[in-house]
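BUG: 3D viewer hangs when loading the predicted structure for this chain

Environment: internal workstation, default settings.
Expected: structure renders.
Actual: progress bar stalls at 90%.

Input used:
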Amino acid sequence: MAPIGKNGRIRAALAAAGLAGAASAYLIWHGDRIGFGLGATSANAERASVEQSRDPLTVDLSESQLSWVKVEPVGELAFPIEKQAVGTIQFNGEVSTDVFTPYPGRIIGAFARIGDDVRRGDTLFTIDSPDLLQAESTLISAAGVLQFTTRNLARLKELYTTRAISQKDLDQVTSDQQAAEGALRAARNSVRLFGKNDAEIDRIVSQRVAESVLVVPSPISGRITARNAAPGLYVQPGGAPAPFTVADIESMWMLANVTEADIPAFRVGQEVDVRVSAFPGRKFYGKITRIGEIVDPTTRRVLVRSEVANQQHELKSGMFATFVFNTGDPVTSPAVPLDGVVREGDGTMTIWVTADRRRFKRRTVRVGLQRGGYRQILEGVVTGELVATEGALFLSNALAMASRS
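Structure tokens produced before the viewer hung:
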């Protein structure tokens, strides 16, 4: 074998040093992965041990994360014992009426529009009525007959004083005059049925002019809610649809179908608070005026009618509404803001409780009523405990992400 020179010995030493460095690097890298003996691997092992020892329902927040959560002590709130029912707003049928013509005829003019406010006696429409013309003609004729018989009776009375006629003739003329008076009274009453007053009847008699224009007035004060009248349209008494519908909207009805099981909680005269989606946060006040006597065999529900004050005319027929009424004395219970209660995926309700405002633990609770932005807590928390009132959903999401990692 040839002797190794100086340069060869140097190269051999460098190669040995390189193999030793590579071996050290290998041990360090693999030692970190399998948890052996270096400072970094010891820290990883300690961190893993801490994570495993923590409560799986607990979340620790950093300083930056604390701004996402608001913590407050649990307070108490009086929750009223209430029941609710959903229904619709309708016109008050006791002060709403369809206006028909009392006699057949053809409409000449219509003087009101939908949405107009009218007073009792205001003209809604007029018709050309043959019946009115006939009644007025009979009135004029009866007035003429009475006038004739009255003059004839006066003349025969003078003749009777001179014995120019007999008592029988005078009695006959007297009877005719009395019959004429009765006929005139009947004729006046017939014309009065068409809405004519005594002054108008006297004018017809004095002028001997019969008019066929029948005026149809509003029978109540209120608002025009429907109109089917048009000039030239032939109308008859009771013929649907009615030419006009007038409703007093100072009060409205709320009609609700309540479940059969809730019927014992209702009574006539009971006060109710009515809410409609058109005016969020507003309450309209009323009372129950009627409870139905029949249970619907299909839905097992009963009609309950409430009368609701509507002085500002804000409620409209057809609005969906909810009425609420108390069925017992209020109950005082622990209460948590709605944002502090989370519905989990399995349907349970949870809150987040803390003792140091940094570590939060999820706790399952049983909830009850809801009022004024708070949820009644029946079980799972006591008054005074610190809970997350804002950011509870953030904590639930953080816990879910930690469990998946």
